Amino acid sequence: xxxxxxxxxxxxxxxxxxxxxxxxxxxxxxxxxxxxxxxxxxxxxxxxxxxxxxxxxxxxxxxxxxxxxxxxxxxxxxxxxxxxxxxxxxxxxxxxxxxxxxxxxxxxxxxxxxxxxxxxxxxxxxxxxxxxxxxxxxxxxxxxxxxxxxxxxxxxxxxxxxxxxxxxxxxxxxxxxxxxxxxxxxxxxxxxxxxxxxxxxxxxxxxxxxxxxxxxxxxxxxxxxxxxxxxxxxxxxxxxxxxxxxxxxxxxxxxxxxxxxxxxxxxxxxxxxxxxxxxxxxxxxxxxxxxxxxxxxxxxxxxxxxxxxxxxxxxxxxxxxxxxxxxxxxxxxxxxxxxxxxxxxxxxxxxxxxxxxxxxxxxxxxxxxxxxxxxxxxxxxxxxxxxxxxxxxxxxxxxxxxxxxxxxxxxxxxxxxxxxxxxxxxxxxxxxxxxxxxxxxxxxxxxxxxxxxxxxxxxxxxxxxxxxxxxxxx
Length: 474
Prior knowledge:
This protein is 40% helix and 14% strand. By secondary structure, the protein is of the alpha/beta class. The strands form five sheets. The protein has an eight-stranded mixed beta sheet with strand order 2-13-12-11-10-3-7-5, with helices on both faces. Helix 9 links the parallel strand 10 (249-254) and strand 11 (279-284). Helix 2 (51-61) crosses helix 12 (362-371). Residues 261-465 form the Aminotransferase class I/classII large domain. InterPro entries: Aminotransferase_I/II_large, Asp_trans, PyrdxlP-dep_Trfase, PyrdxlP-dep_Trfase_major, PyrdxlP-dep_Trfase_small.
């Protein structure tokens, strides 16, 4: 007798990412290049790992005293303490007053999952999540045959919706209450904001943690402060966005160093946060890899906590140590008092027991050993500085080679961007040319990983960019 599966109504899920890498791997061209790796890469084309990590891992593996018992629900205490000191400074007053603490999580996604669950339960007045970042949205293109009854107002117009965030701040996308909406629904959401014939494309969210908040029942808005004309983050857009964000919202700010705000501008931001009663949720994903200075990359966060702001922060320590497969993170909690902090941590402890119970320990042991040993810590800081200096040099070389080739346009935006990743400022036809004609694989946004460029491939890459620009400009 044949029985029907209880899973017969479950369709295959839409893939969130990886399609570009899959196409790259299927390409048989011997000199193909992939410039969109998430991790830092060495000149040899391998994932970068700080040398101090290799030494520390071997030492830990040979330690006979390790018994590998379960960690406490909040995680490894020594790791949490070391990570907090890295974030706020060893002599932080907030640490001394014991009003900042943390929960050892499974990477940054675990931190956002845990934080979102807490806020849904204990801050029920916060219905909206507003994600502000320097990332620009990916554009979905539709073939000419695509028509949708959901979009009667777009009939007879081009099947793309451009998002001029530099002209008028508004949510790049309001996520519908389904995990992976059809692109037509993105059009429907955006059509609520635009009613003119100038509509030319659809912007989809760029931050994955938006899905975490969405699945928790929040209404998620994503704002980009990227200026596509100037090819840089724009403080004017940033404050326009802040004026339009609804009151009583969760404000998620990714990579705060990229916002490039002055101290006076941060004071203005704090005033807006207070007046609108926003709850800040920061994302510190790669401390030390933006400027090469660990303290500089979190100085503004230290400023927030010194003024008594309460907030959550997702702190990931996987990328800056090169321990990508460990998923080492912390949900940092900043409260007004130690009593408030302990109450929050006690509730988070209950959620942890249901979510994962025991976070990854090996990566945390490695990181703790490095952060608590002055010699190893100094060596690790030098390795971070070396990565950033190499990226800065690569960016300068790319800009100079394009100048010498006579490539149209200004390429100063390449060196103005901080961090290992940055935008080339290419349009969709230029990206398509690189992928299909030159076998250089980059995202449609043209945001690449500059650690993928080295002495062996920089000439080919810059020459290909030059050809792409010349062909499409002509």
